[in-house]
Amino acid sequence: PRRIPNERDLVMAMTDADAEGGALDYFDQNFLKNWAGPEHWKLRKVIRRPEADTNAATKATKTRGKKEGFKIDFLSPPDPEKDLKEIAKELFAPVTKGAGINLPGTGATAKKSKKKTKEKKDEHLLPDDMHFSSRQLVTLFLKPKFFLKMRGRKARLDENGDDVDEN
Amino acid sequence: MPGRVSQAADSPLTLLRAAIPKIFDQAQVSANNHQKNFVALYKLHIEGSKHTELVRNGQGVRLVGEKTFEEVLNRLLLLVLPLKKGTSQADRILKFVGGYTKFVNEKAAEEKSAQEGDDEDEDTTASRFTAHLLKFLLKGFESKDKIVRYRVLQTVAEMVSHLGEIDEDIYTSLRAALMDRVSDKEASVRVQAVIGLSKLCGSEDPAEVEEGETVLDVLLDTLAHDTAPDVRRAILMNLTPNATTLPHILARTRDTDPTIRKVVYGTVLKDNLMQGEEEKTMGPTHPRALTILQREQIIRNGLGDREPSVRAAASALLGLWADIVAMKSEEDQDQEDVSVERGVLNLLELLDVGVSTVAADALLSIFTSRVDIFENIEFGDRFWTSLTPETAFLARVFVGHCKAINDDVRLESTLPVVTALAFRIQESYNDLLDDIRDHDDQILLGGLTEDERNQKEDELLDREFVLAEILRLAVNLDYADEIGRRKMFQLVRDMLSKGELSEKLIPCCLDVLRKLSSNERDLIRVVVEIVHDLRDPDEEDEEDPIDDAETSYSATPATVKPQRMGLFTKPPAERTPEEAARAKTIDLKCLTLCIGMLERVNSTFEENSTLDGVLQDLVIPAVQSKDLDMRSKGFVCLGLCCLIARRLAIGSVGLFMSQIKSSPDELKLELIKTVFDTLMVHEQAFTKQGIDLGPVTESLVNLIGTEADEKVQALLCMGVSKLVFNGMITDNRALKNLIMAYLSPNTVSNQELRQCLTYFLPAFSYSASSHQKKMCEIFLSTFSQISDVRRKLEDDQEMVSGLQVGMMFVDWTDPLKLSKAADAQGHISDSNGVNDFIQLEMATNIMMALLKPENKDEDDMKILVQLLSKLYIPDKVDDDSIRTLKLLLHNYSMRRPLSDATSNRAFTKFDTAISERFAKQLEDFSEEEYKQLVELKDIAEFLDDLIPLDDSEIIDIEPKKKGRKRYVASDSIISTTTEGDCSDSPPSSKQGKKPKSKKRRLSTSDDEDPEEDDTQKGSPAPPKRTLPKRAAVINKKPPQVIVISSDDDDDDEENTPGPRQKRLALSPRYQTNVKKEEKPDQEINDMLDDDSSELSEPPHDSIMDPDSDEEQDEVNDLLTED
DNA sequence: TTTACTGAGCTACACATC
DNA sequence: GATGTGTAGCTCAGTAAA
């Protein structure tokens, strides 16, 4: 599966998966993030039920009132005490101690380390998306045109989940 | 100096000091007034510049006015620089300064050209201003304040494009300074630096760069490697697309950040389609300017994106592509035929409709996002008579889309009638056949040059493709008309009967045939007949083109033809090489035909007696063939038969299994697929008949760890996942092995495997409370095993961190996730089936693991403690559970073997949190009392077994093989060993609901939990549990691709060479299979004996017994047709 | 208009370094 | 062990989407 299911596939799924496959749609919808394998895995917590949400609505309009009242004060006369150069010196003062302003691993020794780290640098690319979905869990390898109806799974949420449908 | 100016000069300078701030004050409010204020400021600038002083006795001129102007401006700028990011006022001011730089330099350029002839290098007010401002800002590049750096760089970035002409040395230092800031610690600073550089790099000539990287090199490197998406995006948006940069830009269609991907489609690719003043010339990202690979990359990645917004952007882009390619090319823009079809067809020509699904996806996307295009597509009269690959493709996809959206009206108005189309197909098929024969003759005669030959072959391929497309389209035709229906049926049937039919057309033909057959039986019968015809062609006159005489398809003889002496009745040994080759070709085609047919049917084998002949004559000989291709197809065919023939399946699973190990990967894949599918379909029936599938599934599970080929690994994981997911494998080891494979460093590059499991593991966990329970059960042992793997990691291998692994388990066992999924699936009634206390159990398990002295890996313990706080403990828990936990916590705080402060803190936090939350229930907590409680007896004993803290350290040092030293602590009872590391299950009963006092074992090993390592169990078998033995077992482990548990559970069975036999002994039914597996060759021969004398009575003729209705129903029910 | 998601800023803590 | 830096978790505000 290297391709996003197109409409034909989806229609096929809809016409027939209604019985049981529909239940798995939830996973297809909700696993859209976190598809790319363990290294890209991220914990996504469910938001606890917001019990009181009725009074929160009115607050939005209130905050709208105060909008950008701020203005930079260009008009006041400059502080005669402070010379332009002094201010500049102050603002532009470079770091004296501690961590520099550059990323660790760069700077003076960069030339050596660059070649070493270059291979390991993350390219920030996603892996090939195999578009794995519930479909693959309920179809056969040899007969992809058919869906398995997992009748046994209707009791899925029972306490003894390993039961098998017995009719 | 200001003090020294004369009275007369004072007033203009004072004016400057007063007026500039006013302009800035306005400029900060809105960008609308900027243009006006440029003029105003410029006026002040020029006026001021007229004020000069003579110095050094008139030998030099001091530009007092300009200097003042610059100083005032700098001072104002200094007010802005410390303002944090996001202050729009500051942004506007800096924009204003940048804009003014542009303004002033343009004015200077105008003036210069007005008074042309003067020498070039003359300083102007503008150039002096620019240089001064730049020098001023350059001083701020290394400020310690990140905000100042950000603002300084922002100002510079605004200015860079409009610097006019500047001194070489200023340029050099600016360039160096910007390059330096690309590695700034702050992403926001880097963003501004790369924006500046990207404006600089256009003017840079690589030839002039003596050493080091060019600006472009740095930008392209940063585009790919910078950790901050913002930085990458900034480069992307400011880089000019061209032949050099485009590949790098397109690579970003798979950037990890969705907004970047969106920018590629919605900004970069879209805005550079056209260029020139009126956007009339082809731009760098015009589809015609791209290579076909690039176009396909763009479409595939865009439409295949997980993010809907990216897909939408890609879709919109494709719509634009269709618009702009509608015009043929540069010259004839005002050409007649600018219909929507033209655009779409031109676009299709730019793609390759023949290979891959990109073109179809693109087309469908355009149909959906650009309804205007879809609705205006019409197929004129001439359309159907002059089909090209593109038009046929368009028609097919169009019809498919109409069908998909149930647009019957449009469908009817566009589609030709069946009969007409049938004749069309027939005609082109006959023509094609003739031409193919002509062409073959030509080749024989040698009258063609290489070019002519290739050209002709391309043309024939095209026509074949057209035919395939029309056949696909034909599936969606309306067959209410009986005449057309018959015509089409006969046509397709005849086509399939021709030996020349390309294999590519077989699936299309079968789809049509299936649609036209009244039921599956008919379809099967017809295909079987065709197979007979193909293998026994004498009766047919195969030279005849398909006859369009009306033949009733229902009149086709249903009986199997009598055997005659033909190619296939001749014993293979007597065939000439030519005959053998021809026979093979035909057999392969027949197998393809059968596979295609079997894929499309689901009625049982027993209902279709005609299949038996095919099985005997074709499939079984193929399986026995030495030819790999043949064998592979034979096995697929046999596997497909098994899916609809239970008895055949029962006999064949062993065969498939036995063949797996010795087969080449290609065949192995098919065999494994077959086994999994068979299990999926027949598992219930097998179980009902008392067949123990354990050994089969077990060896499949074990194969995950031993197979080297990625595809095979992935397939195994997928198959096992399916079986576990659907409850056909309940053994926890399967689940555990899947997780090991998931996280193993050896599968990092196996995306198929990893993505499968990324889906499966949570889906499994969130689909049943019992599944979460399993996850809970295997957590600790899996966790420690993964840690083992991590410790042995090679330098170049990578693996997710232990905390990450732990977090995954916490996530998988989160009851909130389960109930959410259950609710969404409409299982609301079942949501009380969600076990809210599952992570309380996890906590108890973790605590017990922490208490065990032999768990001493600092890192692991630390992670476990950290995980405690992530667990969900519901507000209401029963007394026993919480008291058990508290007892463990209490003991741990007494004995705490933790050394590092972090863990201590985390533990204390959790302990107090629990104590406070459940204060009421724990009110009268006292250790001694609780130990007496029956409910907690197991725990109490567990704790008593623990060696007191003081001594445990001795134990750690002492090797285990010497036997456990026992220490009598004041309040502990001497007991048997408490060996083992992380054991999975708590000895406690579930929430104390079923108070039962178990035998004293560290861990329960009930049926659900075969997890326990033998060495971990408290079972009294000391000799087995010595360290050397364990080490030996580890060493014995065969070289594995994925390190799967070696000290795994149920050692006695698992690591012995023949676990299968041992297990099978329990199941008499299975023993036969064992024998088969032991002697695969013998078994094949037994089962697949194709001695023709036995044909009428095959060894397994029993499968021909009509099955009970019940069984048929079962198979039918199980599979649902698309 | 409401809602959800993202991004910035803050705080606290962990980790490394001396 | 004191120090400073880096990072994770949290909250809030702003924006985009419904």
Could you explain how this protein is built, in words?
The complex is a heterodimer of chains A (167) and B (1122). With 167 residues, chain A is an all-alpha fold. Chain A is 31% helix and 1% strand. Chain A is built from 6 helices and 1 strand. The radius of gyration of chain A is 30 Å and the shape is elongated. Residues 10-21, 52-66, 109-119 and 151-167 of chain A have low confidence and may be disordered. Chain B is an all-alpha fold. Among the domains of chain B are: 8-113 and 123-159, no CATH class; 413-516; 517-538 and 560-690 and 1063-1122, no CATH class; 767-772 and 806-1055, no CATH class. In chain B, the strands form 2 sheets. In chain B, strands 1-2 form a two-stranded antiparallel ribbon. In chain B, strands 3-4 form a two-stranded antiparallel ribbon. The relative contact order of chain B is 0.04. The interface between A and B is large, with 95 and 134 residues. Chain A binds a DNA duplex (18 and 18 nucleotides) through helix 3.
In short:
The complex is a heterodimer of chains A (167) and B (1122). Chain A has 167 residues and is mainly α. Helix content of chain A is 31%, strand content 1%.
Keywords for this entry:
heterodimer, A: 167 residues, mainly alpha, 6 helices, 1% strand, B: 1122 residues, two-stranded antiparallel sheet, two-stranded antiparallel ribbon, flat, disordered N terminus, DNA-binding, cell division (chain B), ARM-type_fold (chain B), cell cycle (chain B)
